[in-house]
Amino acid sequence: MEGELRFDGQVAVITGAGGGLGREYALLLAARGAAVVVNDLGSSADGQGRSKTADRVVQEIKDKGGRAVANYDSVEEGHKIVQTAIDEFGRIDILINNAGFLRDRSFAKMEENDWDMIHRVHLRGAFVTTRAAWPHFRRQEYGRIVLTSSAAGLFGNFGQTNYSQLVVTGVITASVETEDGRSCQGRLYVVDGGTPLLGRDLQKSLCISTWHGSTVYEVDRQPGRSSDVEAGNDQDSATQSAAKMGLIGLGKTLALEGERHNIITNVLVPAALSRLTESLLPPELQRQMAPVHVAPVVAVLCHRRCPAAGAVVEAAGGAAATYRWQRSAGIADLELTPEKVLDQWEVLDAADPAAESPDTPAAQMALLSRQLTDAAEREAERREVESAPAG
Ligand code: NAI
Fold it and tell me: Of 8, 160, 253, 254, which has the fewest CB atoms closer than 10 Å, so is most exposed?
């Protein structure tokens, strides 16, 4: 095995690195020799307000002898973040698009502004920041880009369905007082053997990060079921899913366009304990899901020797894997009708043990073409048999 993977002489820009996952990426890359621009707007979990959280991470890096500088711009103005790297360190080699927040709305209740805010930060923010870094990467014929998607992007997400694996035995109507003196009323769900979960009404009134430091006064306790939680936690799904899936599309195309300039882009699907997820993750998993366990995978995606491009890479708690599309066996009929589609839906959709995994539009077209040619041959044979003289 070769020695430690290092980033000496390289400059990394990490957005949203004032806490959570981004902070761990910053600490690891800096410890291995990179100079880091620690960007963070310092907003709350739902994207409100500003603070200088990036300063703390910069200080941590400097205390350990590393090089780092803070930047407080929103990724909506990503060119300013990239400019900080150029002004302070003279170059940029690595861009980790990590900044993000959650908006707590179901599709039915979603306002245009919620949709726009999520897209402006997650998808457009990554686009603007990456576009600013791209000319530098092209000029130096080197760049590493990570985009951050999520399970919501891969699968969609209705409510906090993670909860539904837990047994909910009770619903408490509670009065909750936060450390900073705010007080609100709402539901808590009693989970068998775990920390009580916040109902949607309390999540809306409490900033999630204040939950564990809060004092709870019980008002009323009723028996509960897991389905209560699903109904109660009608959390943002559509806008987050759409933006996060959009990042996969962006990443796949950037990977192709960057290939001949040695610009490698990959998409990360992380899962970790952070202020965005502390009320979502099953309590028994929280310890293992520390963000520090995601950082090694990100370091490889940012490294000179990165072995993948356009990959969708999952990382959580020390586990890592890649995702790819799989095509079912499908049907092909040159005289397809709506009735035939409906009748054969099970065959169309059936998982095929020998399934192919097209990973480009051309590969998908090749599969389609092969299937249609086979169908045409079958049709020709059928006609031949039909027209053959009897006997
Ligand atoms: P976090 O809330 O700890 O970190 C996100 C950071 O982004 C915050 O420090 C926030 O201030 C910053 N930020 C928000 N809007 C910004 C903007 N406009 N410009 C610059 N910075 C901004 O959350 P976490 O969990 O570390 O999330 C990091 C990324 O990973 C996000 O994109 C999130 O959607 C994604 N993710 C996280 C998962 C998890 O399990 N923690 C699961 C799937 C995706």
Answer: 8
